[in-house]
Write a structure and sequence with these properties.
single chain, alpha+beta, five-stranded antiparallel β-sheet, globular
């Protein structure tokens, strides 16, 4: 958990220096969409037996996504059963966020624990009811085909269908 807090602090400080697209505003905590995805990916990479990583991802999941895929125990089971390649990845690359339709799509390329390369697109929005309004939160995650030898993250051109995935 300390590592996740440290990553959160570093991402918050470095976010503006990491080349986030200028048209994407930070949220109320100063995070950009790709910062949130990097935070979630780090949490999933370091997930433990108590599913602390998945719990952090849940906190950065939109209310609509939580309603569609919750409650939390169901969400955690879905991650293990349907998105297991996101857990304990060897490494990952988070690409530049792309603004579209009031939200942001963020591409991710990862090498899973088994050594296979996978691509995902995270879809985030900032407009949410209540106290979560103004925060970049994940609406959905969609796996995308990715050539096994392609370096870097996929492009954000494949829009996921929120909130049916994560």
């Amino acid at each position: 958990m300390l590592r996740i807090r440290l990553i959160t602090a570093v991402i918050g400080l470095l976010g503006p220096l990491l080349g986030t697209a200028a048209e994407l505003p930070p949220d109320q905590t100063g995070l950009y969409p790709d910062d949130v995805v990097a935070l979630q990916m780090s949490a999933l990479q370091d997930n433990d037996a108590q599913d602390s990583g998945i719990a952090l991802v849940w906190e950065y999941t939109s209310p609509a996504n939580q309603r569609a895929n919750g409650p939390y125990p169901r969400f955690a089971r879905m991650i293990h059963e349907s998105f297991g390649d996101l857990l304990h990845s060897r490494n990952f690359d988070v690409g530049a966020a792309k603004l579209e339709d009031g939200g942001a799509s963020v591409p991710v390329r990862l090498v899973c624990a088994a050594g296979n390369t996978h691509g995902f697109i995270f879809w985030l929005t900032m407009e949410h009811p209540g106290d979560r309004d103004g925060h970049w939160l994940t609406e959905g995650v969609t796996p995308v085909p990715l050539p096994q030898d392609a370096p870097g993250a996929p492009t954000a051109d494949t829009r996921p269908v929120p909130p049916s995935a994560i």
